[in-house]
Write a structure and sequence with these properties.
Chain lengths: 297, 395, 276
């Protein structure tokens, strides 16, 4: 063994001591459960059951044929497909408008950010009341505009879209703050150089400076928004419980039901592995984005 | 406005006033920059020089006064319509574009229509490929003259500071502007590269033959590159002239202080009314025509002080040597004047002179510093220069 | 100002204000209803302004006719417990990751990066089974334990410690400080802005969390704020909306107040997560 300095020995010792609790937590809370999860997914384990059988990939095969799971996947993707572009471009649009304000900037920033910090369960309850067909203020407003009576949360065609709007309501302020940070990081001199170079129209400034300079922010916002939208759960529990007619059954809600209401642990584990695959795909995308960001600096 | 022989356009500023909030940063600037000259705005930070440059560029609007380029008022014109180019302190290169893209940008924005610049839509234009080929040929030509032809496909992040500087110059040059504006372009470079780029910029100016307006806080840059220098302080121009004007005939104490390295030696004194200045124990015979009892400041450039024998025939200051600094070709003698309340002075002499003085035993703990009259300046209590009629024979 | 710029400004304000109305509407409605007398809630006419102030009855009912105060107290206990353990484990480990060279450092950091992508829903099943077998379901420990590990905090603090000047650490070592002292007396105080931002994050996240408490908590004595409002709503269905809105205000109020107080730290924390 090569001789090491006292400093190196001290670092090695203290490094190990400092890292030990975190490492222990990673092992018990993250790695061990993951291993158990994958193992569970090839069994028919049910909580409290006396016997456990290995069933190979039967759970995964069952997932493929399970209409409820497929409906929840379809609902989740529909939800993401609506929330994602609206939250990204809406957040960008609001940020662009707010960034140009001087005196009123803080006011708008705070108002748009309110839903992010508020307790979603509580606010979903408020939304439920607001959208109540007879007691809430939305229905009379809607009817004043000359439309017929609607019940957004109990109409199978509208319920998922309503949840998506509430999801968007909660997410847009978060994205706005991220974009505002990105906008503040663009050097003013770039806009001045562009002005001297002849960028006289707003589209020129946006396409040559703003949009490319926001590239890393946009990708980051896209990935975080996708993950957030993917995990839609609270509003389903509070507002629809998957109904009406399964129109708002989402991946996490089904997972919750299978695992913790019906206690079909093996089946739920297989479902979780599928969720994990989606999330892994997203994080690979994000890692690529971070690489590209290094390229810029 | 006059045009230079090559027909380059000058810049005329009249009565430029600008305030930020309650702070007045420019306080009535009148300045006629002649076509084809290299004019440097120099001054301490906060003196308003960058704001003045940005007003010429159109990035900032003056509260009052007019800007004319080539004899035509440009106050109402947008930056891009003024036909000026600017090199920023940070270079302000577009980080997501290649070097070629950066240099091509001003031409694309001028020669393509808005529709031809939009994503997707631009491919519908039949003439766009032809225009772009022409632009890229010009970009390559400019890159070659700046010796960055091999870097055209790189992005700014992959370039050294000096290379980024050249790209910024290229982006400014490519559209052949009427006026070239530069805002502290060398301040982000290391010392050696800065010296090198000074001569490159001077050569570039000679080759392009257009008007350069250059902002710096570094008086050495101002002195080495400029045709004329405008020294600014607190929103005013203190003196406008050639570098030698400013060095040899500073109009005010502030100018004398700012220009020159090491800085000018300043000695407080009082006119004796008989052609001399009393500074405690000594008398300098340079105050002809100044009323007796007037408080004055004598400025002496470091190179106007020389070790001398005590019985030297001419004005001499008694000094106590604190430290001698060897700069190779020159020596700096740091001394204090016991006759003037311990005022610190610096004498700059050549290595040869130092050797000779040392051999003659002139540099000891105590030494006499002869003052050559040509390097002496006299300022009144208000800081204004007092014209000096030199005594005959006081070399 | 030119006419076109004035029009632009008016248009921008119109769009922003319209959006702001939608963003703020639930909060306004919640607060208005929470002081509205019950007879008006069910009235046919919608007058936004309550005819009389019924805040005392509504808030009084929210606080007495339910376990809401208990849920909020639980929220404080759980958030505080989670945050304390998170800081105690994450700060030294992040310092070690950033500044000390020890065996397994690269592996640990790789695990942290991996962990960033795993939400609680993934290890939830095995953790639930473990708690069930240990007879720990429906306890504070079950609520808190999965969040003792914070890979996000580890990552955030590591990024911060990496920018800390090495000279100061060397100077501290020359002054005779050990690594333990350096962490808690030099590095951690310097990281206070990052710690503040992280704390706001952590508290908001666990106060608002529904998924994990819904799984492990069954008794109302252990209900978290999110569960508290859910239980209150289910008990009050068709009942007193004024009290329900008062309860919602009480649950979400502390988070909004906390955000307004720590807005700068929060925004800085968000921008540190990787965008900048």
């Amino acid at each position: 063994m090569r001789p090491r300095s006292p400093q190196a020995r001290s670092e090695a010792r203290w490094g190990a001591i400092f890292a030990a609790p975190a490492l222990l937590l990673i092992l018990t809370i993250l790695l061990a459960p993951l291993a158990v999860l994958v193992a569970l997914s090839v069994t028919d384990y049910r909580l409290g059951a006396i016997t456990v059988r290995l069933v190979g990939l039967d759970n995964y095969a069952a997932l493929l044929g399970d209409p409820v799971f497929q409906r929840s996947l379809r609902n989740t993707f529909l939800y993401v497909a609506f929330v994602l572009p609206a939250a990204v471009f809406g957040g960008l649009g609001v940020a662009l408008l707010v960034h140009a304000r001087i005196r009123t900037r803080t006011v708008y920033e705070v108002i748009y950010f309110l839903p992010v910090t508020s307790t979603l369960v509580a606010m979903a309850t408020v939304w439920q009341f607001m959208l109540h067909p007879t007691l809430g203020p939305v229905t009379p407003l809607w009817m004043n505009l000359g439309f017929g009576r609607i019940d957004l949360l109990n109409d199978p065609d509208l319920a998922l879209g309503t949840l998506a709007l509430i999801g968007l309501w909660q997410l847009i302020g978060f994205n706005m703050v991220l974009f505002l940070a990105g906008l503040s990081a663009i050097p003013r001199e770039l806009y001045e150089a562009a002005a001297l170079d002849g960028a006289r129209h707003a589209p020129d400034r946006f396409l040559r400076v703003t949009w490319p300079m926001l590239g890393p922010t946009t990708m980051f916002v896209t990935v975080t928004s996708t993950v957030t939208a993917f995990k839609v759960f609270d509003t389903v529990v509070v507002l629809t419980r998957g109904g009406p007619l399964g129109a708002t059954e989402t991946l996490l809600y089904i997972l919750y039901l299978e695992g913790f209401q019906y206690f079909r642990m093996g089946y739920a584990a297989a479902m979780t592995v599928v969720l994990l695959v989606f999330l892994a795909g997203l994080s690979i995308l994000q890692a690529r984005v971070i690489e590209r960001k290094v390229h810029y600096a | 406005m006059r045009k230079s022989e090559e027909g380059a356009d000058g810049v005329a500023l009249a009565g430029i006033v600008k305030s930020f909030g309650a702070t007045r940063v420019l306080d009535g600037i009148d300045l006629a920059i002649e076509g084809g000259e290299f004019l440097t705005l120099v001054g301490p930070s906060g003196c308003g020089k960058s704001t003045l440059l940005r007003i010429i560029a159109g990035l900032e609007t003056a509260d009052g006064g007019t800007v004319a380029i080539g004899g035509r008022r440009v106050d109402h014109l947008r930056p891009d319509e003024r036909d000026v180019a600017m090199v920023f302190q940070s270079y302000a290169l577009y980080p997501h574009m290649t070097v070629a893209g950066n240099i091509a940008t001003p031409l694309e924005l001028r020669r393509l229509t808005l529709a031809e610049r939009l994503p997707l839509v631009r491919h519908l234009s039949p003439r766009r490929p032809r225009v772009m080929r022409g632009i890229m040929a010009e970009v390559r030509a400019v890159a070659e003259t700046l010796q960055i032809g091999h870097l055209l496909d790189r992005r700014p992040a992959q370039l050294s500071g000096g290379q980024r500087q050249r790209v910024a110059l290229g982006r400014a040059m490519v559209r052949r502007p009427r006026v070239f504006l530069m805002d502290e372009p060398l301040s982000n470079l290391d010392a050696a590269l800065r010296v090198h780029m000074r001569s490159e910029l001077a050569e570039l100016h000679a080759r392009l033959g257009i008007t350069f307006v250059y902002v710096t806080h570094d008086q050495v840059e101002a002195m080495t590159m400029s045709s004329r220098v405008a020294l600014m302080d607190r929103g005013r121009i203190l003196q406008l002239g050639t570098p030698s004007d400013l060095y040899d005939h500073p109009a005010t104490l502030a100018v004398a202080r700012f220009i020159g390295s090491p800085p000018i030696n300043l000695i407080e004194g009082e006119s004796d009314g008989a052609g001399g200045v009393r500074i405690d124990g000594a008398r300098l015979p340079i105050a002809q025509g100044v009323a007796g009892g007037t408080r004055v400041t004598v400025g002496i450039r470091p190179e106007a002080l020389h070790p001398a024998p005590p019985r030297h025939d001419g004005p001499v200051l008694r000094a106590r040597l604190k430290r001698a600094e060897n700069l190779g070709a020159e020596w700096l003698l740091h001394a204090i004047l016991p006759d003037s309340a311990g005022t610190a002075v610096v004498a700059r002499i050549t290595a040869a002179e130092h050797e000779a003085a040392q051999r003659a035993g002139l540099i000891g703990e105590e030494l006499a510093l002869a003052v050559s009259a040509s390097g002496m300046h006299l300022f009144g209590a208000d800081g204004a220069r007092i014209a000096v009629r030199r005594l005959a024979g006081a070399a | 100002m030119s006419p076109s710029r004035l029009i632009g400004r008016i248009a921008a304000h119109t769009v922003l204000a319209a959006g702001a109305v939608v963003m703020a509407a639930p909060f306004v409605w919640m607060l208005l209803t929470s002081i509205r007398p019950p007879e008006e809630v069910f009235g046919a006419v919608f007058d936004p302004i309550p005819s009389r102030f019924a805040g005392f009855e509504n808030y009084g009912q929210a606080l007495t006719a339910s376990n809401l105060p208990r849920a909020m107290l639980n929220g404080v206990i759980v958030c505080g417990g989670i945050l304390a353990v998170q800081l105690m484990t994450a700060i030294p480990a992040a310092y070690a990751l950033a500044r000390l060279s020890f065996r397994g450092r690269e592996l640990l950091f790789a695990l942290v990066l991996f962990g960033l992508t795993i939400p609680i829903q993934v290890p939830a099943l095995p953790l639930y089974i473990a708690f069930a077998n240990l007879r720990l379901l429906d306890t504070y420990f079950a609520l808190m334990a999965p969040f003792f590990l914070t890979v996000f905090g580890l990552f955030l603090f590591r990024q911060f410690f990496r920018t800390y000047p090495e000279e100061i650490l060397q100077a501290a070592r020359l002054d005779g400080m050990g690594e333990f002292e350096i962490v808690w007396r030099i590095a951690a105080p310097a990281a206070l802005p990052a710690i503040a931002a992280f704390s706001v994050f952590s508290v908001v996240a666990h106060w608002n969390d529904l998924y994990w408490p819904l799984i492990v908590i069954t008794s109302s004595e252990r209900a978290t704020p999110a569960l508290g409002i859910l239980a209150f709503r289910d008990a009050e269905t068709g009942g007193n909306y004024g009290a329900l809105m008062a309860a919602a205000s009480l649950i979400t109020g502390p988070m909004i107040a906390g955000f307004l107080a720590a807005r700068r730290a929060f925004v800085r924390g968000i921008t540190m997560t990787g965008v900048r």
